[in-house]
Fold this protein.
Amino acid sequence: MRLTIFNGSPRGKKSNSGIIADYFLRGFIDGNEKRSKTYFIKTIKDQKEALKTFNEGNAVVIIFPLYADMMPGMVKEFFEWLEPAMKKKTKRPLGFIIHSGLPEAVHSRLLEKYLDRFGVKLSSKYVGTVVFPGSEGFMIMPVGMVKRRCKILTAIGKEFTATGKFEPLLIKKAVKVEKYTGFKLLLLKMVMKTGIQDFYWRGMLKKNKAMKNSYDRPFAE
Ligand SMILES: Cc1cc2nc3c(=O)[nH]c(=O)nc-3n(C[C@H](O)[C@H](O)[C@H](O)COP(=O)(O)O)c2cc1C
């Protein structure tokens, strides 16, 4: 099976989506990398290029992060380019892998519902959506930590090559926490009071010289 991966991260090549794609491909490739190709959809030029491949009939996996509880704007734009593809559905397998900074899967469920409908419109062999929460910081984590979390993606990739499907049991395993409740939630609230979870984001704001804009409300006026 030939596979096309679309990486829908606004960060492009250096992204958590890229790392997730790599682990999926480790399972999929099985010693034959020529059978897969990754496209980025960061710019309109990229999207137009990617669109040509979308119509070639290869199996497709679209990987992107959760942005403001939905997909990044450029992914939505790419989806709109795909409208003509809905008119001539093919039998090629098509699935999505969505991941989020937050560790709870519940944040991605609305988007998953959207993709369940969209996927069926795009292909008569929609294979499902993998929700993979807690991807924030993958790029800066030690490989050992990421590897442990991503093993499941390699298993999903392997199963995909063998059967052309996303195995429902493995999709379930990709989620560690659906929603924090009870004692764990209480503990989390206590940790949040220390402000320790802001460390990473503060670092990002500083790096991008955007600290002074962190309370901006551009849509409020
Ligand atoms: C502008 C922006 C909005 C985001 N919105 C959410 C969100 O609503 N929920 C969430 O869990 N993570 C959110 N995140 C975190 C990303 O999903 C997370 O950092 C992801 O790993 C980024 O993947 P990438 O490197 O492939 O772009 C957001 C990140 C950014 C930069």
User: Anything to note?
Assistant: Residues 3-179 form a domain with the Rossmann fold fold (CATH 3.40.50.360). Strands lie at 3-7, 36-40, 59-65, 90-100, 123-133. The first strand starts at residue 3 and ends at 7.
